[in-house]
């Protein structure tokens, strides 16, 4: 083989090695996103498991606040459906947006329930209610950290897939940008819940 042929072979091998390296890095970053969502999913399951217990404890004290309790139960159900959709299609921006919206509604419902519970000293003093409230607060904190970790991984993946020359491999192999999680979608969700008696 001539020197030119050797140069071509070496360049082709170098490009192939580079492409494989970039592909493997993008796959690794995508898997980190899946792991980060898995951590969110664990905390969401914990939250969803705690909510019925909280509602049952509150139900005895808040018999005339049935609408608040039902709103929490309905929001929990919708959020569970949304998280199942994300599990089925983790790269879907629309599924991730629906999850964020459902979680926003659930968070608002839980906030209203907690505000209502504050108005009932006997419920507030109930040991089970205190324990469940602390568990939910702890879970909410863990969710916040897990969402932050997810967004950090999504940002790292999106940055890697959007920078040249990795962009070439990402586009050729259809690496779609990872959706980011937003805690709020609108000004209404950012507003503090108001409870009127």
Automatic annotation (TrEMBL):
Membrane topology term reads:
Single-pass membrane protein
Chief site of localization: membrane
Top-rank taxon? Bacteria
Q: Where in the cell is it found?
A: Membrane
Q: Which Pfam families match?
A: LemA
Alphabetically sorted, this entry's keywords are:
Membrane, Transmembrane, Transmembrane helix
* Family designation: Belongs to the LemA family.
Q: What is this protein called?
A: LemA family protein
Organism whose genome encodes this protein = Acidovorax benzenivorans
């Amino acid at each position: 083989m001539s020197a030119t042929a050797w140069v071509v072979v070496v360049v082709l091998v170098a490009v192939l090695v580079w492409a494989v390296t970039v592909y493997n890095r993008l796959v690794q970053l995508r898997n980190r996103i899946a792991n980060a969502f898995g951590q969110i999913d664990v905390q969401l399951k914990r939250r969803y498991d705690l909510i019925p217990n909280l509602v049952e404890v509150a139900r005895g004290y808040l018999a005339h606040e049935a609408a608040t309790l039902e709103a929490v139960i309905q929001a929990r159900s919708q959020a569970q459906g949304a998280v199942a959709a994300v599990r089925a299609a983790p790269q879907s921006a629309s599924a991730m947006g629906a999850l964020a919206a459902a979680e926003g509604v659930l968070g608002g419902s839980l906030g209203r329930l907690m505000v209502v519970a504050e108005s009932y000293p006997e419920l507030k003093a109930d040991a089970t209610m205190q324990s469940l409230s602390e568990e939910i607060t702890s879970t909410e904190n863990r969710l916040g950290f897990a969402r932050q970790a997810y967004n950090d991984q999504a940002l790292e993946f999106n940055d890697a897939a959007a920078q040249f020359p990795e962009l070439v491999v990402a586009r050729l192999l259809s690496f779609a940008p990872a959706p980011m999680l937003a805690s709020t979608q609108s000004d209404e969700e950012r507003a503090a819940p108001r409870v009127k008696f």
